[in-house]
């Protein structure tokens, strides 16, 4: 009797599995470049035939507690998952996806939950995960079946520790992949699956340290689900202009009554050793805001914040791994405070938050010197930045109540953070209402400007990153102080004009931006100062620097007549030459796109203010832009295409007038 090579290989899967890795056998049959389409079909046909035969044996001969062919079926299921992962001829293999899906689901639907069945279901579950990872289209058909099966599993986990040990984490991994390949399932997971997991957490997981890895896994899943459902939080640096976005309720509260949610809050101290739970607290707070009444949301915020601060204070900082853990905790504090601010959560002047963050600020220099942390020293700047952002978020969350802490912050903390940008946020948060006593605030503005001026005069002494932050803080301070900055604008601008050209060439762009912020806040009147600013601006624009182009666009929007009069005709001629050069240079490179978009925007802004240019616009610029537009459209440069279309429309309207 002749035995086919493939049958021999199938036999080898369970006879050689102990001595030869299954992955090697699979790779030899589907991953080599010489396998080809025919070889892939032969292997896959034989594998599926054996899988179906072994499943039939289970149906006919297995008992609730034993499976005679457990080893053979388990090995074949493993080979199936590895085949999905390693197959090279994916075009041929796609015809078999439904068959593999059917086998995996057949195993998952086996009616028993004893250890032999749990082992097979675990391998089948990972096969489903592999299918969705490697062939995303399968997730659409798998989703409803797997969600139904997940409910059965979670009910079993509540009764059986072994089911949890073997299947809970693989199920969370599968659902994690599902929600990323089928984002529409996120709301279903939130309202139908996470409530059951939360019940399992509060009734089972928190009662034993044996479930810490399970908590980590469901935290990861919840994080992915909530990320899909909620818009990203603004950064702390954006809070000056950020507003809360509206998100409708999902129906989570209908599945998780308030009492059960409070029970979850009470389990937080029991999960102090599970670092992953801190990462989901800001998103869970955002969920409570839209799902529960105000009191529940407030209690959630306070419990979460207390848990995070307790975890930070408990860190002994005696191992490098704690740097990453500490960083994660600080980021969660920051995000929770940002979410609280956006939801207008009234946070009292809580000394505990300030003191905990302040203690970390003082700890950072010690960590930098500690030889124990030498290998992870590069992570310290990120931790410092996260701490700074947490302080900024605290300011916004407290609002005017930050007055009670601002003196200590400015005196003791801000200098150690070495981030002058924070002063703009302090000024913005504390800016008085119209009927308030302005004197304390005016003194604070004067103090801040004095520190800013001192820093600018010492700009040459700072590192490049610090110098960049200092120059960037000019605009942030202007925005924060608002009209209270007016008495100081000319002095700061004069300092910048005098210092321009003395530092690194990489800083010159930031001088332009800073001066533009100052001018927009309070236009300069001194002739020499205006000339100095215009010289700096025109140089940046003609060098085709983004900072100069953006500044010119801002000025044209604010006061076009002033800009057109302040900059000489020779400048405008040279500027149009740079624009026509850009419109006639091909191909358009990706790195040039932002600059070209700005040039097109400026040309569009200038059109209504031009005189004696109609003939040139019609005969030269219009056909040039039309040709350029066709080319960028063919190249698929959407942003440039849209900007050129706006200019083209404006030129055509003007030519018909």
From TrEMBL:
Q: Which branch of life, at top level?
A: Eukaryota
**UniProt cross-references to SUPFAM superfamilies, sorted A to Z:** ARM repeat
Q: What InterPro entries does the record point to? A: ARM-type_fold
User: What name does the UniProt record give this protein?
Assistant: Exportin-1/Importin-beta-like domain-containing protein
Species of origin: Saprolegnia diclina (strain VS20)
């Amino acid at each position: 009797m002749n035995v086919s090579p493939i049958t021999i290989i199938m036999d080898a899967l369970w006879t050689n599995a102990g001595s030869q890795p299954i992955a090697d056998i699979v790779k030899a049959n589907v991953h080599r470049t010489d396998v080809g389409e025919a070889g892939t079909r032969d292997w896959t046909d034989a594998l599926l035939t054996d899988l179906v035969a072994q499943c039939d044996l289970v149906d006919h001969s297995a008992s609730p507690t034993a499976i005679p062919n457990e080893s053979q079926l388990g090995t074949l299921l493993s080979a199936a998952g590895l085949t999905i992962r390693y197959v090279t001829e994916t075009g041929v293999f796609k015809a078999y996806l439904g068959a593999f899906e059917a086998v995996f689901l057949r195993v998952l639907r086996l009616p028993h939950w004893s250890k032999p069945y749990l082992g097979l279901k675990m391998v089948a579950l990972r096969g489903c995960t592999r299918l969705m990872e490697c062939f995303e289209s399968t997730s659409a058909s798998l989703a409803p079946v797997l969600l139904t099966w997940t409910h059965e599993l979670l009910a079993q986990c509540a009764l059986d520790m072994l089911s949890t040990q073997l299947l809970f984490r693989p199920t969370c991994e599968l659902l994690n992949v599902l929600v990323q390949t089928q984002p529409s399932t996120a709301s279903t997971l939130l309202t139908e699956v996470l409530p059951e997991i939360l019940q399992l957490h509060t009734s089972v997981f928190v009662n034993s340290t044996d479930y810490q890895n399970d908590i980590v896994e469901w935290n990861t899943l919840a994080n992915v689900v909530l990320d899909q459902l909620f818009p990203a939080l603004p950064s702390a640096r954006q809070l000056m202009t950020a507003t809360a976005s509206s998100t409708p309720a999902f129906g989570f509260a209908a599945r998780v009554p308030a009492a059960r949610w409070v029970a979850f809050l009470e389990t937080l101290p029991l999960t102090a050793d599970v670092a992953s739970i801190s990462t989901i607290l800001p998103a869970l707070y955002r969920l409570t805001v839209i799902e529960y009444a105000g009191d529940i949301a407030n209690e959630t915020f306070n419990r979460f914040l207390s848990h995070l601060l307790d975890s930070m204070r408990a860190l002994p900082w005696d191992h490098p791994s704690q740097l990453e853990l500490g960083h994660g905790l600080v980021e969660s504090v920051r995000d929770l405070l940002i979410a609280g601010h956006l939801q207008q959560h009234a946070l009292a002047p809580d000394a505990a938050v300030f003191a905990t963050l302040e203690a970390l600020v003082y700890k950072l220099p010690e960590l930098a010197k500690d030889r124990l942390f030498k290998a992870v020293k590069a992570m310290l700047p990120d931790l410092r930045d996260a701490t700074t952002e947490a302080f900024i978020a605290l300011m916004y969350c407290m609002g005017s109540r930050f007055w009670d802490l601002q003196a200590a912050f400015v005196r003791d903390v801000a200098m150690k953070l070495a981030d002058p940008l924070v002063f703009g946020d302090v000024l913005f948060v504390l800016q008085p209402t119209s009927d308030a006593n302005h004197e304390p605030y005016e003194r604070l503005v004067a103090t801040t400007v004095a520190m800013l001026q001192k820093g600018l005069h010492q700009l040459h002494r700072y590192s490049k990153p610090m110098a960049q932050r200092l120059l960037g803080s000019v605009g942030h301070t202007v925005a924060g102080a608002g009209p209270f900055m007016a008495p100081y604008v000319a002095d700061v601008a004069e300092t910048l004009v005098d210092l321009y050209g003395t530092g690194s060439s990489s800083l010159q762009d930031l001088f332009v931006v800073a001066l533009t912020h100052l001018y927009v806040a309070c236009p300069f009147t001194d002739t020499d100062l205006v000339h100095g600013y215009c010289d700096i601006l025109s140089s940046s624009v003609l060098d085709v620097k983004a900072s100069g182009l953006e500044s010119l666009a801002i000025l044209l929007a604010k006061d076009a007549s002033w800009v057109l009069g302040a900059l000489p005709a020779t400048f405008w001629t040279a500027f149009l030459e740079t624009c026509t050069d850009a419109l006639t240079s091909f191909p358009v490179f990706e790195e040039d796109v932002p600059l070209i978009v700005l040039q097109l925007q400026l040309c569009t802004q200038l059109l209504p203010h031009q005189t004696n240019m109609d003939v040139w616009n019609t005969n030269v610029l219009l056909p040039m832009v039309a040709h350029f537009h066709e080319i960028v459209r063919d190249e698929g440069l959407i942003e440039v295409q849209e900007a050129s279309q706006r200019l083209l429309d404006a030129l055509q309207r003007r030519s018909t007038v």
